Amino acid sequence: MIRGLNGNSKILANESVKTMFKPVFTAATVPANMNLQTRNKGVFWNIYNDGYIGHDGDDPGVTTNILFNDHIGIVFLTNIYLKDRTDILKILKKYGERLVKK
User: For residue 9, what are the CA distances in angstroms to 5, 15, 62, 71, 100?
Assistant: First the structure.
């Protein structure tokens, strides 16, 4: 996904990647339970306003996230359900960015 975001996809056509990561909602079309101040949606992906793209999921007993931008990827999996994973993801993003700078 990072390669695709950088225009170097080896699996999908670059136009497909652009379409997949293009925000689809506007102020006039945003669903009631979504806040465009923090994210938008692409095809299958959350487009976050902090520069990350991601996908999350959960089922009873598990919580998952994948996040990436043009230079770093983060995968978070746990075998417990977390209603709010905001703080954990902030820590992982901060740590990942610090690793890239080294």
Answer: 8, 10, 30, 14, 21
Per-residue pLDDT at 102: 65
Contacts of 53 (CB under 8 A, 6+ apart): 1, 5, 21, 42, 45, 46, 47, 67, 68, 69
Two tokens, residue 67: 């996040």
Count Cβ atoms below 10 Å from residue 45 Cβ, excluding itself: 19
pTM to 2 decimal places: 0.85
pLDDT digits (tens, 9 = 90+) for 36-69: 999 999 999 999 999 999 999 888 999 999 999 9
Instruction: Look up residue 15 and give its two tokens.
Output: 């136009």
Q: Residue 23 in 3-state DSSP?
A: coil
Helix (H), strand (E) at residue 86: helix 86-101
- Say if CB 17 and CB 44 are below 8 A apart: no
| Mean pLDDT value across the chain | 92
